[in-house]
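G., before I forget:
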Amino acid sequence: MSSNAIGTVLIAGFLLVILLFGWFLFSTSIYFLTTIVLNLKFSLIKAIYLFLGMMIVKTFYPKNVFV
Amino acid sequence: MKFEKAGAGLPEKERLFIRLFLVPIVRIAINWTISSLLIKREVKIIKKLLNNISNQQLKQKMSIERTFAIEDNSRQFSVNEVLEHLVIAGTLVKDVIDTLSQEKEVDFDIKIEDVKPKENKENQLKDFLKFYHNYDKFIRNLPKKQSKMTKAHPWFVKFNNFDWHIFMFMHTFIHRRQIEAILNELKRLENE
């Protein structure tokens, strides 16, 4: 693999991590606001579950991209 | 130097990495707006990269090491040819998105060999910028609804209209990296 190709994969990976972190912040912010409005206890584990749930929905809706 | 024929495709490992790992992750990490913003960013980078490059250098065919997700046959392009390819392929993708958005069947085949550059003409950057401006306008006016109809990419999986829009970003990105490789090779030749 050329250095350019390795660089491309690294840039793409870095970008994806940033974007996924952005989605995590997005779902966690909504969850955090919900805990404030409904006076619930904030749990990081629940925030992670919520994020994973959102990712699963995004993966399989409206179709399975693995097919 | 001998290159593989057009449409020969990617090495199997690289193709599977993109198909089974990159495509699904990119699909969940990017939405319509993010993809449009990333495409605009790529166009800006390409414009900046080509700022002080002479017309002769833009037309000069260079043999480079294969860059990621670029088939062997495309290693011999000039910068202008990369831009021409982006316009030809982009026009096809735009038509596909338009057709799929209307939930109609795409009745033409997508072949890699058909989107290869043919002219290596001057002022290709102007055509490139004009195309991407029109593409952005087209996407802005498109209802952001994922189509049920799909059209398969020759190397990967079936894409709906949304997937093709994301593909436009990835495609522009990998060819921007190719342009960088060509410019590095031109610089190396100049310094020799």
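Helices of chain B lie at 12-29, 32-49, 55-59, 79-101, 124-140, 161-191. Residues 161-191 of chain B form the longest helix (31 residues).

More on Monday.
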